[in-house]
Design a protein that fits this description.
heterodimer; A: alpha+beta; two-stranded antiparallel ribbon; 8 strands; about 50% helix; B: alpha+beta; Ribosomal protein S3 C-terminal domain; rod-shaped
């Protein structure tokens, strides 16, 4: 009898150890799973943000390239802004045209945005001399979640100036 | 009567040890992977993202120097113009070779600083610049963050 009772108690003890081990393993596994999922989500978010910023940086560079290197189309769009198909602010490469800058406010923001195929992005332009004196601001100021800036050096009226394009969405 | 077995061959004890060892190895591997991933995420800086604006800045500086007629000046004159244009957090080196046969040996190097970086990204490019006297120069540049 004693022997049978002793074996039964031992089996019960082993079963308790088995359940405790199982629960501990489950707890560790759940903890690791939670950490893994949160790390993965963080990783994905960072990659998505980095990819979006890279795409926006490229777009901002392309847009500022068009603005400072081309006259636009037609080349004399500033004479009749309503005929403008492609915006360009240069008189020559890296040299901004006074007439085009004066005509820019007469272009609606929608036409400006469509001519540069900005789609879901918005753009704010800030043109100033290097000493900080403002020449012109145009576009939609930042009111979104992500933004990149493309800052370019140009000449305007024989002086050095900067054209800053803030692309955002 | 059953023969008494030593503890190390007890079947449940061996299984427990194997499970514990297995769990310990799994936890160690998972921990190493997660720490590595976290370190990689925290230290990831997309260098190529900053390379595009840096290169654009280099081309802009050379283009504006060309507009200002700087390439017909001496090295000191070009350096003065360069320092006025270049943002304070950048350094730049220009190597200017004359493409005109009469000046074929004329080679000038202009640097905003004497030190070259050895441990960071350096953007490089080249373009042809023309002076008002219709002299053509091949301008190679290297640009980096200070």
């Amino acid at each position: 009898m004693f022997r049978i009772g002793s074996q039964s108690a031992m089996k019960q003890h082993k079963a308790q150890i088995g359940i405790a081990g199982f629960l501990m393993a489950m707890a560790i596994f759940s903890g690791l799973l939670i950490i893994l999922i949160s790390t993965w989500n963080l990783y994905l978010t960072r990659f998505e943000t980095t990819a979006a910023l890279k795409e926006m940086q490229l777009k901002a560079s392309q847009v500022t390239d068009i603005l400072i290197q081309t006259q636009g189309y037609p080349p004399d769009w500033e004479d009749s802004p309503s005929t403008m198909l492609l915006i360009g602010l240069a008189a020559s490469d890296h040299n901004l045209s006074r007439q085009k800058l004066e005509a820019l406010p007469n272009i609606s923001y929608t036409s400006f945005k469509n001519s540069l195929t900005l789609f879901s992005y918005d753009l704010f332009l800030d043109i100033a001399y290097l000493d900080g004196t403002s020449i012109l601001t145009y576009g939609k100021p930042f009111n979104g979640t992500l933004s990149v800036q493309s800052s370019r050096i140009v000449t305007y009226d024989g002086k050095t100036a900067s054209l800053r394009g803030l692309l955002w969405h | 009567m059953m023969a008494k077995q030593p503890p190390f061959v007890d079947s449940s004890g061996t299984k427990a040890m194997v499970f514990s060892l297995d769990a310990a190895i799994a936890v160690s591997i998972a921990a190493v992977l997660m720490v590595s991933a976290a370190v990689a995420i925290a230290s990831y800086t997309p260098e190529t993202a900053s390379a595009v604006p840096m290169l654009k800045l280099g081309y802009d500086v050379v283009a504006v120097l060309e507009q200002q007629g700087a390439f017909s000046k001496s090295e000191e004159g070009i350096k003065d113009d360069l320092l006025q244009l270049l943002p304070v957090n950048y350094d730049m080196r220009l190597a200017i070779s004359s493409l005109n046969q009469s000046n074929a040996t004329r080679y000038r190097v202009v640097e905003s600083t004497g030190s070259n970086p050895s441990n960071r990204f350096v953007g490089a490019g080249e373009m042809v610049a023309t002076t008002s006297g219709l002299e053509h120069h091949l301008v190679r540049f290297w640009i980096w963050v200070k």
